[in-house]
Specification:
The chain is about 40% helix and about 15% strand. Strand 5, helix 9 and strand 6 form a beta-alpha-beta unit. The chain is globular and about 75 Å long.
């Protein structure tokens, strides 16, 4: 740590920059090398052996698929923010999840997962692509779902796209010796630190809030030394490495993460309250509303409700699709966590690969929309969103564009 002070706002700025003074620079350098000169073969072979066993720091990085100093800075900083011993970065959030599942396979072929999950995660678990047996369970039924060969429990809180919250400590208690993986993408380490509640692995799609500007793709997992070694071995073999420039941008993105999260959260709270009072809205899913946090986890597990909102509109699919075409300031696009606000239709996009009946059971209806609130003035966002809703209500019979029509 850069000082004896432990404060997320300060750590976000200074983590991973401890050596800059000795280097005589103000910002971290970017190392774009694909290979590293080998002047001492004995030292290089020692480095290669260590990297192959999952070590992170060696005398010579050897080759960019094995290690990269710029990516390592981001990993070190993110681990500090999560209160983890280490972190391992990958080329995407899905690459992280795949690596975790492959690494867990050594302990058994059974995985327990709590829905809802990001649509890509759900699709991977149900695709049969990986040699795993998957059981989907309610959060209260983890203990009953675990078997002697269970190697991992997976959950997402807040969940995508319904913002449902899961009590991490309760799941960890039920899982016993089985490691628990928490996808904390929606919360970021600013609002939630799952390791403090007993989780063993914390996953982020770094493409989202950590990067924060919609201009990079990456994923990262914060964990202990044993799992970090396992995951680096998988990364070496699969080649799912984070590009150095993305590592640099992610490290830079951490500096403003607390400010961005707090500002967007304030705006989201305002929008959620106004949506809840709108006559065209059937319901709002947001942890900052009483109905969105029945277990009162905000304040106990999360420091705040975050900046993601889901809401269901009267009129179902046709009106929801029309709203997406009517917004002007909000961008109709998948992804989240950017400085600009995004709106998307989960049933038609992020969760389209999930079985329709499962979607309905999870509350992912055809009238549900998801908003990632950005840094625009909240009154401007409300004016745009409210206007889009009103225009959509007044033209409900107009068919939406073909690419937005439900399957």
């Amino acid at each position: 740590m850069w000082s004896t002070v432990s404060n997320l706002e300060s750590d976000s700025v200074h983590a991973g920059r401890e050596d800059l003074r000795d280097l005589g620079v103000h910002v971290p350098p970017i190392d774009l090398s694909t290979t590293y000169p080998i002047h001492d073969l004995s030292l290089a072979t020692q480095s290669l052996d260590a990297l192959a066993e999952g070590d992170a720091d060696t005398a010579n990085p050897i080759y960019a698929r094995l290690s990269n100093p710029t990516v390592r800075r981001f990993e070190t900083a993110l681990a500090e923010l999560e209160g983890a011993a280490d972190a391992v970065a990958f080329s995407s959030g899905m690459a992280v999840l795949t690596a975790c599942l492959l690494a867990a396979r050594a302990d058994g072929g059974h995985v327990v997962a709590v829905r809802p999950l990001y649509g890509g995660t759900d699709h991977l678990l149900t695709s049969g692509l990986l040699p795993l047996d998957v059981t989907f369970a309610e959060a209260e039924g983890i203990a009953a779902a675990c078997r002697p060969d269970t190697s991992l429990v997976i959950l997402e809180t807040p969940a995508n796209p319904t913002l449902a919250l899961v009590d991490i400590e309760d799941v960890v208690r039920q899982a016993g010796s089985v490691p628990v993986l928490v996808d904390s993408t929606f919360a970021t380490p600013i609002l939630q630190r799952p390791l403090e509640h007993g989780a063993r692995l914390v996953v982020h799609s770094a493409t989202k809030f950590l990067g924060g500007h919609g201009d990079l793709m990456g994923g990262v997992v914060a964990t202990d030394e044993e799992w970090a070694h396992r995951l680096r071995k998988v990364r070496i073999l699969t080649g799912a490495v984070l590009y150095p420039l993305a590592g640099y941008l992610l490290h830079r993105g951490l500096q403003t993460l607390p400010v961005r999260v707090e500002r967007a959260q304030r705006s989201a709270q305002l929008l959620a309250r106004r949506l809840a009072d709108h006559p065209a809205v059937k319901g709002v899913l947001y942890p900052g509303l009483a109905a969105g946090d029945p277990q009162r986890l905000v304040g106990r597990q999360m420091k705040g409700p975050g900046s993601m909102i889901a809401f269901e509109v009267e009129g179902g699919y046709d009106v929801a699709a029309r709203i997406v075409t009517e917004v002007r300031m909000l961008t109709p696009a998948v992804s989240l966590g950017s400085v600009d606000s995004l709106i998307e239709h989960p049933a038609g996009l992020t969760h389209r690969t999930v079985d329709p009946e499962i979607r309905r059971q999870l509350g992912i209806t055809d009238g549900l929309l998801r908003i990632s609130v950005g840094l625009e003035a909240p009154e401007d966002l409300w004016s745009d969103l409210n206007g889009a809703i009103e225009r959509a209500r007044n033209r409900p019979n107009e068919a939406p564009p073909r690419h937005l029509r439900s399957a």
